[in-house]
């Protein structure tokens, strides 16, 4: 994978994880949880979303022929 491909993969995975984290923390704080507790609760799922998004981008690039 070329340099630009890794940069794209990282950017899209970070975007997906950031959105997941932000929405999750917002929902938990609206439900009455403190910010720190909400952020700690979202971290494991955010990591999973980051990994899944990175795998998804990598596989979709292979299907599209970007390698």
Give a structural overview.
The protein is mostly helical and 67 residues long. Helix content is 87%, strand content 0%. The protein has 2 helices and no strands. The chain has helices at residues 3-30, 35-64. Helix 1 runs antiparallel to helix 2. The radius of gyration is 15 Å and the shape is elongated. The termini are close together. The relative contact order is 0.19. The mean pLDDT is 92.
The helix tally amounts to: 2
Shape: elongated
Instruction: Please write the string of helix (H) and strand (E) elements.
Output: HH
Span between termini: 6 Å
Q: Biggest sheet: strands, sense, closure?
A: none
Strand content: under 5%
Instruction: Report Rg.
Output: 15 Å
Q: Which residues form runs of ≥5 with pLDDT under 50? A: none
What are its keywords?
67 residues, mainly alpha
Secondary structure elements and their pairing?
Layout: H1 3-30, H2 35-64
Helix pairs in contact: 1-2
Summary, kept brief:
The protein has 67 residues and is mainly alpha-helical.
